[in-house]
Amino acid sequence: MAIQSMMKKMKPRIIALLTDFGGKDYFVASLKAVILSINPRVEIVDISHEVEAYNRLEAAFLLKAVAPYFPQGTIFLAVVDPGVGSDRKIILVKGKKHFFTGPDNGLLIPAAEEEGLIEVRELRAEKYFLPSWSRTFEGRDKMAPAVAWLSRGVPFESFGPIAASFEKLVFPEPSFLPLEIRAEVIHSDRFGNLITSIPVQPFLDWFKKKKESALILSSRKRRWPLQYVPAFAYGLSHQPLILPGSSGFMEIGWKEASAASHLRIRPGDKITIKMVKSKKRLNKNVGK
Question: Does residue 237 sit in the same domain as residue 197?
Fold first, then answer.
């Protein structure tokens, strides 16, 4: 009766899920079933389950991009876990605004540090796991019940000791040269836009010095003329565009089409953006 009374007084909490599980199998539904069995009042939000398999960097980018817009107290469960079943830790992270749970492989840390990381604990308290658990699905058997109990009001400190250390994941740093930027693609979105590792403001500071110059995009030994635009509506339809993205990084896009498909560039690919004095300097191999 005491638990039921407490549940009635509690405001519904949000648990937001981010995984590479896809939609084909029972994996995502299993997470939700475990959570709702422990806290039927919780609100579950799907961030995405289409992260490229095992791609921690892409997951970290998505979590960092979306976390600031969730209400205070939201609990994030992010499972992209190549090391499942090994001796890698499972961690709970307390930030200034949110909680984050997942494998200790770095994907939680950029989002937590963005808002202010307060404390990291290891998930060890087995009483908050399912009664029996599998080494191949710790997201369901350990992490999902833990976040559900956290949403029920179990104190953060109850789940395990403070982590003596934890993995960090750092986004690739672009190299800014006077006439060249070397960077990496970290995500391709639903529309085929390529999110780069180039922060918006440093790019604009670099570009405004020589706005009369033409830009060239290079990747995988191919080159294309590149047009800077403030928004897609201002772009030409026959060439790649570069523009400030809503996530704080520069994006390479294509007006009303997929830049990823046109350019055959994917996350993880290295790119170079160069300034040239005039488009006449482009040779006939551009775009080949």
Answer: yes
pLDDT at 130: 96
Q: What parts of the chain have a pLDDT lower than 70?
A: 1-11, 211-212, 278-288
- The residue among 105, 124, 159 that closes a domain is 159
Structure confidence at residue 278 (pLDDT):
61
User: Burial letters for 249-272: b for 16+ Cβ neighbours within 10 Å, e otherwise?
Assistant: bbbbbbbeebbbebbebebebebe
Residue 69 sits in which domain range?
Answer: 2-159
* pLDDT tens digits, 216-261: 999 989 999 999 999 999 988 889 999 999 999 999 999 999 999 9
Q: Model pTM greater than 0.70?
A: yes
- Which tens digits make up the pLDDT trace of 128-152? 999 998 888 999 999 999 999 999 9
Total number of domains in the chain = 2
Same structural domain, 103 and 231: no
Residue 8 has, within 13 A of its CA and on its CB side, a CA count of 5
154 falls within a domain: yes
